[in-house]
Write a structure and sequence with these properties.
The complex is a heterodimer. By secondary structure, chain A is an all-alpha fold. Chain A contains 20 helices and five strands. In chain A, the strands form two sheets. In chain A, strands 3-4-5 form a three-stranded antiparallel beta sheet. In chain A, helix 3 runs antiparallel to helix 4, helix 3 runs parallel beside helix 5 and helix 3 packs antiparallel against helix 15. By secondary structure, chain B is α+β, with helices and mostly antiparallel strands. Chain B has two domains: 200 residues, Immunoglobulin-like, CATH 2.60.40; 141 residues, Cytochrome Bc1 Complex, Chain D, domain 2 (Orthogonal Bundle). Chain B is 39% helix and 17% strand. Chain B has a five-stranded mixed beta sheet with strand order 3-2-1-5-8. In chain B, a hairpin with a 2-residue loop joins strand 1 and strand 2. The longest helix of chain B has 34 residues. Classes of the chains: A mainly alpha, B alpha+beta.
Chain lengths: 656, 406
């Protein structure tokens, strides 16, 4: 952020300040207008954990319905809404934002920066995500249910994949599909904006000496994931726009009667959807690649290969989308090509597992809570990988596709993989974020509850799938030999739910009541551990100069003093320049929320305002106005004097 | 952390023993997977190839699991920090390129073991063998049932597909509304029915038999209730079945009974429970499903039917405009929105294989279609749309009529 030093000096005198820049650091106002990457990271984490619990509750209702044959917990339509919202929530509102929480909190700390490249844009990403999440879940409101509708509210019932032409107004005339379209669009905007921010941050804001091949693997995976997001999301954005046009303005992209092609949706969706799988798992791999070296007390085995394989997975991830479509009749050539490409992706994935084991090899493994989760991750991810290889054999997949075998597969990857790793990350960086450390005993009890519950819930699904149980059925008869394992699975799911809830409680408790952690409780290897816990607002008193990969470990074990950053002297005299908070990011997101609501509630607004377009146009105006004022707002900023020198906190754009 | 691994050993052994016992239990019960939709108990060449390939992938991955998992487990136990260790960090090694390259080559070779049969299998399942001689069946998906047409034989039926054992069946897949997927696990993996797209697949049955099957692509509210059956017959039986199918609907001649219960106008509109009670539990008949299917083909013995009731049912079928959607060939009903009912009485299931075709179940289906299959068109557009009201006595007559359609 050293460039920010010069912004203040060049502030235009004519800056438009319709809304004065807020100053509050705490309270609702502080959080609403913050541009601090750490606070935004925490906002992402809180929202993600909340939606993890919501999605988990939906999952438990699904499992309770399937506990016994001909279950009566949910009716057909409610069950369909439940699995739609469970999938959408877990992918877009739990795992992605929890990864984003770590991206936000850690990337600047790990590369030696004071914030992300565009702090206000970062706030805009979060609030747009929040707007999308809220809008999507408003669909549950019971008063929205039309007369005679058997579901809850108007929650979507099209599946997280929303296959055309079931999403056309002929088959889903209600608002549910519109909620899903608009919610996903907003979440897509949030993800793409955030990813652009991270790419610029990682490319441009690295501390001196932090070369690309010294970047922590987590930052590398953030970079790869961000590229996946900006390349993959346009595909679903286009698909959703086409679908919205079909539903609202009579176009015929997927309208069968007018010659539309529903298969087109599947290609567009999975060109997004398969990279999305890696968007969910690469950050997890990055987290594990940080935790394993710390608790083995030796460097990551084969760092260049881990990085290269991560990038390789990112590239290959765009070449395998049609393995989700082996049964759509693509023909011999396409099925063969996608089967072989999918097998290829197993190699870089396997390489990572080999290298993680190599990291443990001849280490001194300390089985602290984050490490236990990381080790659990390797085992469970390996299991999910094996079934992935099975799916790549297209003819075998013809039996497994859309069966519970697939459900088992991707829950091993997404819970055993992503969620285990994200929980490892929460326990690992909790001391950094909160200054307090979680106790070992309850942490391990939580791990074993989650681990056992998870395996009891999902391993039997392999049997169910092989025994011919399709996905997304709200009911089944008792004579299909599925009763035992469905019952066992539901019992496991209840244990898993209890475990996750317990873990969340333990983490929340530790934030307030945990033992003080100090700056470096785990003998960490990366830059964030060189800072106090929690780090000060400006992160680094002076920007560090990086002399090695695993820089903090290197600095702890060398007697040579680190060279000083060229701006250090200047900052000691003039203070560290920090960006001001702003109203406009949240305001622009609010405008998007109004715009989105207008598109969802078209029929209702026709009744109120006479024309459906009034509310969307109002929302668009708010977005444009907020962006405009945002652009003209002076960069502002103020100075902090970390070493106590100087004149305290200078403020405003008129310093120097 | 902090306790040595040796002090854990008894607990560890006990846990390991428990784990093994659990695995043994799974081995005894789980791996049978012998349900009627089992993908492992295959009864045709396509499913056999697919399951054979599954086992190849299974053994390759089990091999990887044992080797990689073994090394991982060893590393976890062997390199655990011991109490009393000094604080010196281990050697800070960074990797071993030869080891890594070797592992990359090894994993690629293992994948080749899977890749070769995969490519062969794709070619095998894609092209119908002996195409000239294969029986063509045109399958059309509807929310939520399947129509089966045999263009070469001129047969139209629904929800129970009958095939011969002596030749491959070339299946053309179409849908009238949304995407469905045709899946007969014991005979072949699935293939989707996609609007504006002509898909095909093939399958064959080794032996005469009766197979459970189900739609495998989410297709709306009652996706779970979109099932069907496949019956395979030896060539002689198949020829006989074709002959029966080609015939018009069976007519039981009798005068219309004078009184047939209350008039619909006298009855209050039914208040229907939407909860779905137990379905095809298989307890409705004692013999094997295949034997039961054969039994269902036989015409009832003379005098075992209430001819008057059947005639009343026939009359109601027309009065209540059932024929607007359903075809009963030879009885003046030519609708093509719902399943063809010309030989409904010879089927073992009803409502797309949701219920066994017993009088009691048929009664339940006709009284409360929405309770059996939520959201179905017969309820939404027929009963509700046309305000069709049926008394319990009406339904009894309709059941007798429909069951007479052998």
């Amino acid at each position: 952020m050293d460039s920010a030093l010069h912004h203040g000096a060049a502030a235009p005198a004519s800056a438009i300040t319709l809304l004065p820049r807020p100053r509050a650091k705490t309270g609702l106002l502080g959080w609403l207008t913050t541009v601090d990457h750490k606070k935004i990271g925490i906002l992402y984490a809180i929202s993600a954990v909340f939606f993890l619990l919501v999605g988990g509750l939906e999952a438990l209702l699904i499992r309770l319905q399937l506990m016994v044959p001909n279950g009566t917990v949910l009716n057909a339509e409610t069950y369909n809404q439940m699995f739609t919202m469970h999938g959408t929530t877990m992918v877009f509102l739990a795992v992605m934002p929890l990864s984003a929480a770590f991206f936000n909190y850690l990337t600047p700390l790990m590369i030696g920066a004071r914030d992300v490249a565009f702090p206000r844009m970062n706030a805009f990403s979060f609030w747009t995500f929040f707007a999308g999440a809220v809008l999507l879940n408003l669909s549950w409101l019971p008063m929205l249910a039309p007369e005679g509708y058997t579901g809850i509210g108007q929650a979507p019932a099209v599946g997280w994949f929303g296959y055309a032409n079931h999403t056309s107004t002929t088959y889903t005339p209600g608002l549910g599909t519109d909620f899903w379209i608009v919610g996903l669009q907003l979440l897509g905007v949030a993800s793409v904006v955030a990813s652009l921010n991270f790419i610029v941050t990682i490319i441009n804001l690295r501390a001196p000496g932090m070369t690309m091949m010294r970047l922590p693997v987590f930052v590398w995976m953030t970079l790869v994931t961000s590229f996946l997001v900006i390349l993959a999301f346009p595909a679903i954005t286009i698909a959703l726009v086409e679908l919205m046009f079909d539903r609202s303005f009579g176009t015929n992209f997927f309208e069968v009667a007018k010659g539309g092609q529903p298969i087109l949706w599947q290609h567009l969706f999975w060109v997004f959807g398969h990279p999305e799988v890696y968007i969910l798992i690469l950050p997890a791999m990055g987290i594990v690649s940080e935790i394993l070296p710390t608790f083995s007390r030796k460097p990551l085995f084969g760092y260049p290969i881990i990085v290269f394989s991560g990038a390789c997975i990112g590239f290959l991830g765009f070449a395998v989308w049609s393995h989700h479509m082996f049964t759509t009749g693509m023909g011999k050539v396409a099925n063969t090509a996608f089967a072989l490409a999918t097998m290829t992706i197993a190699v870089p994935t396997g390489v990572k597992i080999f290298n993680w084991i190599g990291t443990l090899w001849k280490g001194k493994i300390q089985t602290r809570v984050p490490m236990v989760y990381a080790l659990g991750f390797i085992w469970m991810f390996m299991m999910g990988g094996f079934t992935g290889i099975m799916h790549s054999a297209a003819p075998a997949d013809a039996q497994q596709q859309d069966s519970y075998f697939v459900v088992a597969h991707f829950h091993y990857v997404l819970i055993g993989g992503s969620i285990f790793s994200l929980l490892a990350g929460l326990y690992y960086w909790l001391p950094k974020m909160s200054g307090r450390i979680a106790s070992e005993g309850p942490g391990k009890l939580g791990f074993w509850t989650v681990f056992i519950g998870f395996n009891v819930a999902f391993f039997p699904m392999h049997f169910l799938g092989l025994n011919g149980m399709p996905r997304r059925i709200y009911t089944y008869d008792g004579n299909l030999d599925w009763n035992l394992w469905n019952f066992v699975s539901t019992c496991g799911a209840l244990v898993l739910g209890l475990g996750i809830f317990g873990v969340v409680c333990h983490i929340v408790y530790s934030i307030f009541k945990g033992a003080p952690a100090g700056g470096d409780p785990w003998h960490g290897r990366t830059l964030e551990w060189s800072l106090p816990s929690p780090p000060p607002e400006h992160n680094f008193d002076t920007i560090p100069v990086v002399r090695a990969r695993d820089v903090h470990w290197h600095d702890k074990h060398t007697s040579e003093p680190a060279p000083e950053h060229p701006t250090a002297q200047h900052e000691r005299e003039h203070g560290v320049h920090m960006p001001d908070q702003s109203w406009y990011p949240a305001l622009a997101s609010f405008g998007l929320f109004i715009l989105g609501s207008g598109m969802v509630f078209k029929p209702k607004f026709v009744a109120i305002f006479g024309h459906w377009s009034i509310v969307p146009i109002l929302g668009a105006c708010i977005v444009v106005m907020a962006s405009w004022l945002w652009a003209l707002e002076s960069p502002g900023g103020y100075h902090v004097h970390p070493n106590g020198g100087g004149a305290g906190h200078g403020r405003g754009g008129k310093h120097h | 952390m902090g306790r040595s691994s040796s002090s854990r050993t008894p607990t560890f052994r006990r846990l390991a023993a428990l784990g093994l016992a659990a695995l043994a239990l799974i081995g005894c019960t789980g791996f049978q997977m012998s349900g009627p939709q089992s993908t492992l108990l295959t009864e045709g060449p396509v499913a056999r190839m697919q399951t054979g390939l599954f086992y190849i992938t299974l053994w390759v991955t089990v091999f990887i699991f044992i080797t990689v998992g073994g090394v991982l487990a060893y590393a976890q136990l062997k390199f655990r920090a011991k109490p009393g260790d000094d604080d010196t960090p281990p050697e800070q090694s960074h990797g071993h390129p030869l080891v890594e390259m070797g592992l990359i080559v090894a994993s690629t070779l293992l994948l080749v073991i899977i890749a070769i049969p995969t490519v062969k299998g794709i070619a095998f399942q894609e092209d119908t063998p002996d195409r000239e001689n294969a029986l063509v069946v045109k399958v059309t998906g509807y929310q939520w049932w399947f129509k089966f047409e045999y263009p070469e034989l001129g047969i139209v039926t629904a929800n129970e597909m009958v095939i011969p054992t002596d030749r491959p069946v070339h299946i053309e897949l179409r849908t009238i509304d949304v995407i469905h997927s045709f899946w007969v696990p014991r005979l072949a993996g699935k293939k989707d029915l996609i609007p504006n797209r002509a898909n095909h697949m093939w399958l064959q049955a080794d032996q005469p038999g009766y197979y459970w099957a189900q739609c495998a692509e989410y297709c709306g509210e009652s996706h779970a209730n979109m099932k069907f059956r496949v019956v395979s017959l030896d060539p002689t039986d198949f020829a006989a079945w074709s002959q029966r199918q080609l015939a018009d609907a069976r007519t039981v001649a009798a005068p219309v009974a004078a009184t047939t219960g209350l008039d619909a106008a006298d009855m209050p509109r039914f208040q229907l429970a939407s909860a779905k009670p137990a379905g095809t539990e298989g307890a409705s008949y004692a013999e094997s499903p295949f034997a039961h299917w054969q039994m269902m083909q036989a015409e009832p013995t003379a005098g075992s039917e209430d001819a008057a009731l059947i005639a009343r049912g026939h009359q109601l079928f027309q009065q209540k405009s059932c024929g607007a959607c359903h075809t009963v060939r030879g009885h003046g009903s030519m609708g093509n929105i719902g399943p063809d009912l010309t030989h409904f009485g010879a089927r073992t299931t009803l409502a797309a294989a949701v219920l066994d075709n017993t009088s009691e179940n048929l009664h339940r289906w006709l009284i409360d279609p929405n309770g059996v299959k939520p959201g179905n068109i017969m309820w939404k557009q027929g009963y509700v749309g046309y305000n069709i009201q049926l008394t319990s006595a009406d339904v009894d007559a309709l059941v007798a009529y429909l069951h007479s359609l052998k």
